[in-house]
Amino acid sequence: MNDSSVYAEARDTDIKVSPFVGMSVRELITTILVGAGAGLVATAITILMNKFVFAAVLCRPEAATDCTNAPMYSMIVGLVIGLIAGLVALAQLRVYRPLLIVVATVIALWGFQALVGGLAWYWALLVMMLLFGLSYGLFAWIARVRSFLLAAVIAVVLVVLVRLLLVA
Fold first, then answer.
1. pLDDT tens-digit profile of 98-111?
2. Alpha-carbon distance 30 to 12, whole Å?
3. What is the per-residue DSSP string for 25-66?
4. pLDDT for the residue 50
């Protein structure tokens, strides 16, 4: 057998690579549950920081004008802590591109705590858990695209669409 026939045979049996990284239903459900947990952490910390830290510090009589910023500051702290918790959990589960999932979720849901701030704390917690879970699932599904550039572009388009839907 000569070398050219070996190469021809190797070309005939080339393995086709899928444009997507595999993800089982169990992995998707686990990612959604991690997202719900991150939403729980972010919202609980937002509520607690607003009530016990920022409102106590910024809503004093001599600094009453700063009181309007207390919910925003607590939302930032809550989202950052929830972002870190979600990123660590996704990394431990070995989810593909966890940073893309977490960053896209935080950008898509940024400021949404202010919209659910008028709800009772348990409804706000439930709504944010659902939104974070669905967002983690959506962006985990998109992050499966092997081409990072294509996955990032699709994620940006979806972030813009989510922002438009949630703000409208």
1. 999 999 999 998 87
2. 39
3. HHHHHHHHHHHHHHHHHHHHHHHHHIIIIIHHHHTSGGGGGG
4. 87
Identify whether the C-beta of residue 100 lies closer than 8 Å to the C-beta of residue 21: no
How do residues 43-89 score in pLDDT, each as one tens digit? 999 989 988 888 787 777 776 667 777 888 889 999 999 999 999 99
Classify residue 60 as left (phi > 0), alpha (psi -120 to 50) or beta.
Answer: beta
**Angle value at C-alpha 138, between 135 and 141, nearest 5 degrees:** 145
> Residues in the chain, how many?
168
Do residues 159 and 104 touch, judged by C-beta distance below 8 A? yes
The pTM is what? 0.83
Alpha-carbon distances, residue 138 vs 18, 41, 62, 160, 162 (angstroms) = 20, 20, 46, 14, 11
CA distance 125 to 116: 9
Work out the mean pLDDT of the chain and round it to a whole number: 86
Amino acid at 40: L
Q: What are phi and psi of 20, to 5 degrees?
A: -120, 145
Q: Tokens 């004008």 map to which residue?
A: 65
